[in-house]
Amino acid sequence: MTTPNKTPPGADPKQLERTGTVREIGSQAVWSLSSCKPGFGVDQLRDDNLETYWQSDGSQPHLVNIQFRRKTTVKTLCIYADYKSDESYTPSKISVRVGNNFHNLQEIREKRCDSLSRAMI
């Protein structure tokens, strides 16, 4: 999501989108996963249903790769994780990396997630 102003932590991204504070741009990107169990892939990750989710199926690190077709400024990244429902599948750390291709990514932000329910990164 992009935003012209600083978004408060814990804000509801859907409400912010309805008020025009942010704009969802994920549909402009190509999404891929390092691995996933059948029926728990990109479609479930992006479907806006809190009852569905991505579930990895492989060794770590577990990666979500979001590639835009052209250079795109992203000011806010919203991630929902429900630690209370299933701490074994909730990430302990989220790393945001940017670059021109997969081989030159540089970490720009890291977030520790011990009891995260909604994060604005």
From TrEMBL:
One of its GO terms (biological process) is anaphase-promoting complex-dependent catabolic process. Residues 1-121 form the DOC domain. GO terms for cellular component: anaphase-promoting complex. Keywords: Cell cycle, Cell division, Mitosis, Ubl conjugation pathway. It holds the Pfam family ANAPC10. SMART domains: APC10 (SM01337). It comes from the Eukaryota. This is Anaphase-promoting complex subunit 10. It comes from Apteryx mantelli (North Island brown kiwi).
